[in-house]
Amino acid sequence: MTSSRSIGGGAFTGAAPIFAALGDRTRLKIVARLCGAGPLSIARLTEGGKVSRQAVTKHLQALERVGLARSSRIGRERLWELKARRLAEARHYLKEISTGWDAAIDRLRAHVELDED
Amino acid sequence: MTSSRSIGGGAFTGAAPIFAALGDRTRLKIVARLCGAGPLSIARLTEGGKVSRQAVTKHLQALERVGLARSSRIGRERLWELKARRLAEARHYLKEISTGWDAAIDRLRAHVELDED
DNA sequence: CTCATATGCAACCCCCGAGTTGCACTTAAT
DNA sequence: ATTAAGTGCAACTCGGGGGTTGCATATGAG
């Protein structure tokens, strides 16, 4: 219920943290992997990547801070998964913002007319 | 033509710089203002905000680096505007990623079933 | 010409993000 | 009981991001 048609205002800037969380290659890869597979342990997420396990852990915690991921210890390993709730929320933000951009894009295209861009 | 169904892979991480560029409140506000109005001078963009003119300039240059904005000097002022091309590209990224999330969200929801989240 | 505007440049500051390494600890496995 | 796997913690390095201030410069206004 928070916000709806707030693009032109400035209140939607709350999405900044989410963008920031996605503004890193390593993190984006992790999100992608968690998107494709079920809950994964830190060790699994570290495999393949080129950063240390600690780095991966930090990224996961970063995602947790913005509410995009959660974890739970099972035996000796900690399993991480994305949070549907927040993910849907983020998806909503993206959609809303890109919708706002549509108008801007049209306006810009009209403004430059024949010009390249 | 670059990428299309690349969510599950890892090549789409090229979107990271764009997310990073949007991962800052101040910059997000600037983008919003440029979205709503036509080309604006640095002075205009500085009005209202709480950061110095130099800060605004730096943010604009940051947006320029990722190709989201461009500028041109007119008389004694420099007018900034968003680049429709890149903006549309970013919009595409957002759409694609959020589409990829849809599947993940469904899977997550199914996985936790009755659970909260 | 003179003054106020709108910027550009450069030097600095402070803090945090990304990544690493070393060591301790807990929990399978054998 | 031993060993190996999977983490957690803490200390540290490096570099760049976000902001600021001061000064120089170009240009519209009177």
Alpha-beta classification of chain A: mainly alpha
| Average of the residue pLDDT scores of chain A | 84
Low-confidence parts of chain A: 1-10
Number of strands of chain A: 3
Biggest interface, chains and residues, is:
A-B, 50 and 49 residues
What do these coordinates show?
With 117 residues, chain A is mainly alpha-helical. The first copy, chain A, has one domain: Arc Repressor Mutant, subunit A (Orthogonal Bundle). Helix content of chain A is 56%, strand content 12%. A three-stranded antiparallel beta sheet of chain A has the order 1-3-2. Chain A is elongated. At the A-B interface, helix 1, helix 2 and helix 5 of A face helix 1, helix 2 and helix 5 of B. Chain A binds a DNA duplex (30 and 30 nucleotides) through helix 4.
Summarize this structure briefly:
Chain A has 117 residues and is mostly helical. Chain A is 56% helix and 12% strand. Chain A has a single domain, classed as Arc Repressor Mutant, subunit A, CATH 1.10.10.
Q: What is the strand and helix layout of this fold?
A:
Two copies of one chain form a homodimer.
Chain A: H1 16-22, H2 25-36, E1 40-41, H3 42-46, H4 53-65, E2 69-74, E3 77-82, H5 84-112
Antiparallel strand pairs in A: 1-3, 2-3
Chain A binds a DNA duplex (30 and 30 nucleotides) through residues 24, 26, 41-43, 51-55, 57-59, 62, 73, 75-78.
